[in-house]
Amino acid sequence: MPNALKLNNIDFERLFFPKSIGIIGVSPDMRGGTFFIRCMRGKFKGPIYLFNPKLAGQELYGYKIYSSILDIEEPIDYVILAIPARLC
C-alpha cells in the first residue's frame, strides 16, 4: 500500500510528553476551566497558553488569556479544544 500511513515514521513524543499546552476556549466555568485546572494540579512543568477571544487580556489563576493561537510565537505541542461542538 503506497499511500498507507507508516506508523513507524510518526513521532508520538509531543503527543504523549508535550513540552507546552494550549487550551482553546478556556473559561472560569467548569467546561472550559476543567482541563486547565487539571494541568495545574497535575504539576505540568511546561508553559500553558490559554485562549478565548471573549476573555482576551484577562488572567485566570495568574495565566494570561490570549485572543488567538496566532498571538503565540513559540510552538505549542498539544492543544485542547474546550469549546462546544456546534462551534467546531
TrEMBL record:
Transmembrane segments: none annotated. InterPro entries: CoA-bd, NAD(P)-bd_dom_sf. Residues 15-88 form the CoA-binding domain. This is CoA-binding domain-containing protein. It comes from marine sediment metagenome.
